[in-house]
Each structure stands twice: as C-alpha cells, then as structure tokens.
Write a structure and sequence with these properties.
This protein is an alpha/beta fold and 259 residues long. The protein has one domain: 3-Layer(aba) Sandwich (Rossmann fold), CATH 3.40.50.1110. The protein has 7 helices and 9 strands; from the N terminus they run H-E-H-E-H-E-E-E-H-E-H-E-H-E-E-H. Strands 2-1-3-6-7 form a 5-stranded parallel beta sheet, sandwiched between helices. A two-stranded antiparallel sheet has the order 4-5. Strand 1, helix 2 and strand 2 form a beta-alpha-beta unit. Helix 3 runs parallel beside helix 4 and helix 4 crosses helix 5. The chain is globular and about 50 Å long. The termini are far apart.
C-alpha cells in the first residue's frame, strides 16, 4: 500500500511530466518576431586593413539604383588605374530597399556577397524611396510617418548586416544628391529625410562610411547643372566622375593609408 506521502510525490511527478511539454509547445508555437539584429560594437574599428597589392587586389562592388550608374561606371576605371583594386558595378532602374516587389535587393546582395566576395561595398540608394508608401504585414505605412521611418531604418540595417556579415570589411553608403529644379515636386525635402535616416543608422556600424553626395555635387550649397543629367535627378558623366573620385578617396583612406 502506498502512503499518503508517496501518493503525493507520484502526483507531483505526473503533473510535471504533463505540464512541462505543454508549456514548451506554447512558447514555440507563437514565436515573437526578432527585430533586425544590431551590429556588435567593434573593439578596434580603426584597425589597419590588409593593404591590397597587384597580386591580391582589393575587390570592390559598386551598386544601387539608377543614380549609381554614372558614378559606378567611372569608379570601375578609377579603381583599375590604381593597379591594386578591381571593381564591378551594377545598378537597377526604379529599385528601392523599402520594398522588394520590383527588385529584391536583400536577396541580390546576399548573392553578391556569396559569389563575388567583395571586401568593400559601395552602395548608392534612395532615389526611389521618397514619397513611396508601403504595405507591411497587411498594414499601410504612409511615407515618413512613424511606422514608415521605423521600417525603413530596419531595411537599412538589414542591407548593412548582409554586407558586413557576408564578408565586407568596409561599406561606403553614398547619400542622395540635391535634386534640380526640374525634378519632381518636393524631391529635395524627401532626399534630405532619406539621408538623415541613413546617416543615423550608419553611426551604429564602425565599419561603414557615409559619402555625402549632396555636398560633393553642389558648389557652396548651389545646384550645379553641369554635373547632372537633364532630368535634374541623375548624374552626367562629369558628375559621375566627380562622385566616383570622392568615393575612391574614401576607399584609399581606409585601404591605402600613407606609410
């Protein structure tokens, strides 16, 4: 015969055996979505990078939306002229990172990092983000409202994480330039907003650099038509070379410091 004490102990064991799996199942059946991971602080962000040589040139990927076309093409030539850098350029018209229906930049960037293995990435993006509202998980996010800004920040971080975790040792994110008077209404206000978010997010990443195209492609704060295409949005060949030169200067500062 089992005593009361023994019977109580048996009941406790049975209850624990039944309840524990149920609790575990309840926890895993409705997982809380994880936010885009933040970068881990680098112990020595200024640590010297391996100096490129002719035998082991620095692999650079330069891409983005259509504004990356002219500077990307110019950058490939400038990088080759150094003798120790090799660059590829790629741009997709009408693309944006706030949504992936037109073109999936996160997926493409993962592919680039896996197949081309660039050690430095130059990314120019934002021309098609302004004024563009999106639907995320069934919820409408109006441009520049709080929900949109939060979501766009997460997309910027997603791209940076793909690049850096994929093997890039430096990322150079090129901001949007001032738009001309012939561009669409409110373009400059929207580009400033996009640039503000990108600048703020890049501060979280010690291995990322911001290239200020706005100041590079203006003269004393004034729009310069000679550096721009006729639509007031894209860059002319001379504007592309000017911006590409500024990007190369930033790359050299990291990878070819004065001895």
């Amino acid at each position: 015969m089992i005593s009361r004490t023994g019977l109580l102990a048996i009941l406790v064991v049975v209850l624990v055996t039944i309840v524990a799996p149920v609790a575990a199942h309840a926890t895993t059946s409705s997982p809380t979505p994880s936010p885009t991971p933040s970068p881990s602080p680098s112990a020595s962000p200024s640590a010297s990078l391996p100096r490129p040589t002719k035998g082991k040139p620095l692999r650079i990927w330069f891409g983005g939306d259509s504004l990356a076309g002219a500077p990307g093409i110019a950058f490939v030539s400038l990088a080759r002229a150094t003798g120790v850098m090799r660059a590829r350029n790629e741009y997709t018209v009408s693309s944006r990172i706030v949504e992936s229906h037109n073109f999936n930049w996160p997926a493409r960037m993962r592919q680039v990092m896996r197949t081309q293995r660039p050690r430095a990435v130059v990314f120019m993006m934002g021309g098609n983000e302004g004024g563009y509202s999106v639907v995320v998980n069934g919820k409408f996010l109006d441009f520049w409202r709080s929900g949109w800004r939060t979501y766009y920040r997460s997309r910027v971080r997603l791209m940076l994480n793909i690049m850096l975790k994929g093997g890039a040792q430096r990322v150079y994110w090129v901001g949007m330039p001032m738009m001309g008077p012939q561009a669409y209404s409110g373009a400059n206000a929207q580009m400033r907003r996009i640039n503000t978010i990108v600048r703020q997010e890049l501060k979280r990443y010690p291995k990322a650099r911001y290239i200020d195209a706005w100041s590079i492609l203006t003269s004393r704060g004034t729009y310069v038509s000679g550096w721009r295409a006729g639509d007031g949005i894209h860059l002319s060949p001379s504007g592309g070379r000017r911006l590409a030169g500024a990007v190369l200067k930033a790359v050299k500062k990291d990878w070819l410091p004065a001895k």
